[in-house]
Amino acid sequence: MRIDTIEIYRVAMPLIYPFRTAYGSDDCIESILVRMTSGSYYGWGESSPLRAPTYSSEWAQGVFIAMRDWLAPLLVGQDITSGEQLQRALASIKGNYFAKGGLDLTWWDLYARFEGRPLWKLIGGKGPDVEVGADFGVMESLDDLLVEIGKAREAGFKRTKLKFRPGWDLNMVAAVRERYPDMVIHIDCNSAYRLSDLALFQELDRYHLAMIEQPLAHDDLVDHAKLQANIRTPICLDESIVSVDKARKAIELRACRWINIKPARVGGLTQALAIHDLCQEAGIPCWIGGMLESAIGQSFNMALATLPNIRYPSDIFPSERFYREDLGEPPITLSGPSRVTASMEPGIGCEPHPERLKRLTVERVVVRA
Ligand code: MG
Prior knowledge:
- By secondary structure, the chain is α/β, with parallel strands linked by helices.
- The chain has helices at 60-75, 83-90, 97-115, 119-122, 142-154, 170-179, 198-204, 222-229, 244-253, 269-282, 295-304, 354-360; strands spanning 5-21, 24-38, 41-47, 129-131, 134-136, 160-163, 185-188, 212-213, 235-237, 258-261, 286-288, 328-329, 339-341, 351-352, 361-368.
């Protein structure tokens, strides 16, 4: 498939309420949407690194520029027939995983539409149904949190993820565990701690959490290995896993017992598939995370979550959880308790709503051969 044009959009999508994590608070999710064409075919993709470089070293405006000035020019005019070939074409550019990831995902949607097959089938998914979990950020009070968790349990969610940060930590987990003794819970620290906090993590062992997500620095593996050797609760790496090579090293160092795969964070679906397979061979189960993308980005996460080594409910959220109106059509909806269902349409089966795309676009550029 010869790549004719790559259209890049930076969009700002207003959230229903601010999303608070260890990194701060966001009212609006900035995201990058990409449209790639080949003859009469097109595909859409998304990369959502957040507005500021707080989750990783990348940010939306930076990704827009990296794609426009460096990455898209390496692809237009080229005949790209596989994800591996696309990655080789971009290999001269160091890092910039989110930027590469947005282009890689877009190519996969284009390719699946060209083949006339749903993406999840094309990559070997076992069926369209995907288990998803509930997720709670930092709230005004513990009482608010307990009420919201109760609602999620009634709605049938099979696991609960709790954001965990200084000031919203042990007391919070203790209160949740006391109220819900048997619930599957894990915490996400978003890299807010250091190895010197070992005693805190040892204390957490008593709450039989399913896992502790990214406790230490965003780019660390060695200290995570030391921490894992000294606690019983499994560590799940998220921010640290930016490439297949990082995943291999994490497994070799025994830095984690789970890996959260986010396709855009690891440089695209090509890399996400390779990490999935590597983990499967090594006996490391995975699940799929999200970046509060629109339904477009989440549709890739859904396709990936149909793979066999995805063994924990993923972070794929109904659009209405964060957005009054999703930029992507159709929006993500629950197809049953704790469950979403991937599209049977060719590709990801989702694309931007034209009027919303126009209204929410901050800047746009077209790169041609
Ligand atoms: Mg995380």
